[in-house]
Amino acid sequence: MELAILNISGKETGRKVDLNELIFGIEPNDHAIYLDTKQYLANQRQGTHKAKERGEVAGSTRKIKKQKGTGTARAGNIRNPLYRGGGRVFGPKPRFYGFKLNKKVKQLARKSALSYKASTNNIIVLEDFSFEAPKTKEIIKMGNNLNITNKKSVFVLPEQNNNIYLSSRNVQGVEVIMVSELSTYKIMKASTLILVESAIDVLQATFEN
Q1: For the chain, how many structural domains are there in total?
Q2: Which CATH number goes with the domain that contains 128?
Q3: Residue 199 maps to a domain
Q4: What rounded mean pLDDT belongs to the chain?
Q5: 35 near 27, Cβ under 8 Å?
Q6: How far, in whole angstroms, is CA 182 from its chain's centroid?
Q7: pLDDT in tens, 95-150
């Protein structure tokens, strides 16, 4: 699969890049995408929720009335979950929501997500660029040139570039990440995936290893 390489002005440079069909042209596996996305979102949860049960709420442990002869149901102490101010029954406890997912399944999921983007022509290959200093206007101008304004766009860089990152930080709908941070969730959530030219070799080498 060949894609034209664009510059930051949105014009073709006359060069093309060949994308690996084993990564960008496979038959997508929807279930693998689902599992990888589910794991990603599960890992984002803090799991620090906690509710007090009857043994943890404040209150006396004295039996509030005698067991028999009152004509009403038997009752223990005022921390009973049936009473106002009592403990909660089966309340949430701190837990870890993450789960194990095989490496090959995660790779298949990312390949499937990339293949979806390639099949719908939502991948843009951009020649290598950099800014001398952080400038938000440059990212906005680039977005207008590439026709990605008001769309969820993800720029994929081969390595950390603070000037590009700081330039895009305040632009709504634009995210800048490294190849190592590229996940199935971010690929699928993005309307357009912008791959910097030098990031393609790094990306393809990641799947070969």
Answers
A1: 1
A2: 3.40.1370.10
A3: yes
A4: 92
A5: no
A6: 9
A7: 999 999 999 999 999 999 999 999 999 999 999 888 889 999 999 999 899 888 88
Q: State the average pLDDT over residues 69-97.
A: 94
Type of residue numbered 47: G
Structural domain for 125, as ranges: 2-29+101-208
Percent residues over pLDDT 90 in the chain: 74
Q: Cα–Cα distance between 156 and 125 in angstroms, integer?
A: 10
Report yes or no on 127 lying in a domain. yes
Q: Name the CA radius of gyration of the chain, rounded.
A: 27
Per-residue pLDDT at 37: 97
- Compute φ and ψ for 182, nearest 5 degrees: -75, 120
CA distance 40 to 147: 29
> What is the rounded distance in angstroms from the CA atom of residue 154 to the CA atom of residue 187?
8
Is the CB of residue 143 less than 8 Å from the CB of residue 174?
A: yes
Name the residue type at position 57.
V
pLDDT of residue 209: 64
Distance CA 75, CA 78 (A): 8
